[in-house]
Design goal:
Helix content of chain A: 25-40%
Order of helices and strands of chain B: EEEHEHEHEHEEEEHEHEEH
Structural class of chain B: alpha/beta
Number of helices of chain A: 9
Strand content of chain B: 25-35%
Largest interface: A-B, 86 and 80 residues
Radius of gyration of chain B: 21 Å
Helix content of chain B: 25-40%
Shape of chain A: globular
Mean pLDDT of chain A: 96
Shape of chain B: globular
Low-confidence stretches of chain A: none
Radius of gyration of chain A: 21 Å
Distance between the termini of chain B: 63 Å
Mean pLDDT of chain B: 96
Number of strands of chain A: 16
Structural class of chain A: alpha/beta
Order of helices and strands of chain A: EHEHEHEHEEEEEEEEHEHEHEHEH
Oligomer: heterodimer
Chain lengths: 314, 249
């Protein structure tokens, strides 16, 4: 049986999030799968056009509705379910957007969900991390019905461009709830690369001592074009905002270069950086667990080393 | 009565180093410390604070699982829950089954809020709250870091990838907790004694009319691939040199 996979696009109304291209790569690992991307937006045209260019995508469904101006799971889920009929699998990214939405879809469909897919072995068999990545579980779905999944972005490269999928406007006539209302979103505007997709990331821990202490990281990050992250301890202490948190309950990332500064390396933090190509640890405490996973370790005072690295780069 | 339902799951304690069994059939749990899922503790703490502020009159904790889950319910009672419901079930409880149990209890208890952890730290599924909200056809506010109740609605700040999002949801609703919602209180000895006298009802899945469906088979557990241990550099210059050599700077 051919797998027909519906991928729910993540976007900000104008731009497709790279997590969607990673879902496409995940779906393509199932040989012969027919891949459709669905875009729900107030005006989906721009995002749908971007989705149509992803290599491997056969079709794009575009669902326009003013109610879709903000991604509310309770509002989006019934629309996705309304078009889910022909599909065997429904996938979304394992971001806060996808985790919030896909499980609601699974509930409406009365379908099982596989969370955080890191590999597809067959149409019914998947690998996923459990226990904060301390074990890898192979799971087999026995049900005959649809299967919902969230895709662990750090496990997949983004699909390339060059595609030319047909875009289909879909009118969905289902009643949408009004019991959930968007009020606001506060996000610090930053010129730095996006933490989740940056090739280089510098993260700071509690050893930075204050929000001010983070400034030396921002300075070095800007010098090398890196995004800045933080450990949970640093976020809890108020040194950095929550969206900078890297780890099991924050962002799970896979940059080319990860520099952990003043981070001891709690298991929950390591979960978030395991897939980084190269890990650098800078810490005063030579016994810190971060050194167990670091490719390059430097036992030193970060307040001396970070400015010095910046100087050495000229 | 204004009531809040809180889900409690018994999990391997946060601090335990997880080991996969040599036959790949699971992780080692024999002789391992078990605790209340940390996100569920946060859920209970939030419910207790709402009650202490006068926003609710009763906090009911619920767990689904085998008999050995009861110590975690007693812990929840010691923290301050008014009563506990233990829905006995042996075997793996998938999110759809857990959500159906909550749905049945909701019919009976008519809560204004159901507060659950955003995920359990064992299976890391992170589904039950959303599945429940879908089955119940009610709002969901996941990853809550702030919760304010007003008459008939709640204003919830959520930790999302972009930053902090605020939603308004009509009650009743399902809330799932993130780490920064609150810091759970410590249990004091007298409270543990008092908790022994609090009501703990035991029900069965069949009495609730919920089928123990298992659609996902756990085929194989493996330890994660280990990273190779790297090298120590002596100073910033050597580090910069090494990274440049690898084309990373």
């Amino acid at each position: 049986m051919t797998a027909r996979i519906l991928i729910v696009a993540e976007h900000d109304g104008a731009k497709l999030n790279p997590s969607t291209a990673k879902c496409v790569t995940c779906a393509r690992s199932l040989a012969g799968a027919e891949i459709t991307v669905v875009v729900c937006a107030a005006d989906a045209a721009a995002v749908a056009a971007q989705a149509a260019q992803l290599a491997g995508v056969g079709r794009v469904l575009s669902i326009d509705n003013p109610a879709n101006a903000h991604a509310l799971a309770a509002v989006l889920a019934p629309q996705i379910v309304a078009v889910a009929g022909p599909y065997t699998h429904l996938l979304g990214p394992s971001s806060t957007f996808g985790k919030d939405l896909m499980a609601r879809i699974a509930g409406l469909l009365d379908a099982p969900q596989v969370s955080d897919i890191m590999a597809i072995e067959s149409a019914t068999r998947f690998r996923r991390p459990i226990f904060a990545g301390n074990a890898i579980l192979t799971v087999e779905c026995s049900g005959a019905g649809k299967l919902v999944g969230t895709v662990r972005a750090a496990s997949f490269e983004a699909a390339g461009g060059g595609g030319a999928a047909a875009i289909e406007q879909v009118a969905v006539a289902v009643p949408l709830p009004t019991h959930t209302r968007f009020i606001s979103v506060s996000a610090a505007k930053s010129d730095r690369p996006d933490l989740q997709t940056a090739a280089r990331v510098i993260s700071g821990g509690r050893a930075l001592g204050s929000a001010d202490g983070f400034k030396i990281l921002y300075s070095l990050a800007d010098r090398i074009g890196a995004a800045v992250g933080a450990s949970r301890a640093a976020v809890d202490a108020g040194y950095a905002p929550n969206e900078m948190q890297v780890g099991q309950t924050g962002k799970i990332i896979a940059p080319e270069l990860y520099v952990a500064v003043g981070i001891s390396g709690a298991i929950q933090h390591l979960t978030g950086i395991k897939d980084a190509r190269t890990i650098v640890a800078i810490n005063k405490d030579g016994e810190a667990p971060i050194f167990e996973v670091a490719d390059f370790g430097l036992v030193a005072d970060l307040f001396q080393v970070i400015p010095e690295i910046e100087r050495l780069l000229g | 009565m204004k009531r809040i339902l809180v889900g409690i799951k018994r999990v391997v304690d946060y601090n335990v180093r997880i080991r996969v069994k040599p036959d790949n059939s699971g992780v080692v749990t024999d002789g391992v410390k078990m605790s209340v899922n940390p996100f569920d503790e946060i859920a209970l703490e939030e419910a207790l604070r709402i009650k202490e502020r006068g926003g609710a009159e009763e906090v009911v904790v619920v767990t689904v699982g085998p008999a050995d889950c009861q110590p975690q319910l007693r812990t929840a009672l010691a923290m301050g829950a008014d009563r506990a419901v233990h829905v006995q079930a042996d075997g793996l409880i998938e999110p759809l089954v857990a959500a159906r149990v909550f749905l049945k209890l909701i019919e009976k208890e008519q809560p204004i809020l159901v507060i659950l952890g955003k995920q359990a730290i064992d299976d890391d599924n992170g589904q039950t709250g959303q599945v429940l909200a879908a089955l119940w056809n009610r709002p969901q506010a996941t990853y809550a870091s702030k919760l304010e109740l007003t008459e008939g609605s709640a204003r919830v700040t959520r930790e999302v990838d972009a930053g902090l999002e605020t939603l308004e949801v009509d009650l009743p609703a399902v809330i799932t907790t993130d780490l920064r919602l609150n810091e759970p209180r410590y249990v004091k000895l007298p409270d543990i004694m008092k908790a022994k006298k609090k009501p703990l009802d035991t029900l069965t899945l069949s009495a609730l009319g919920v089928e123990l469906r298992q659609q996902l088979k756990l085929v194989r557990f493996e330890p994660p691939p280990q990273r190779q241990k790297g090298i120590r550099v002596k100073d910033a210059a050597e580090l910069v040199e090494a990274l440049k050599k690898k084309g990373l700077l």
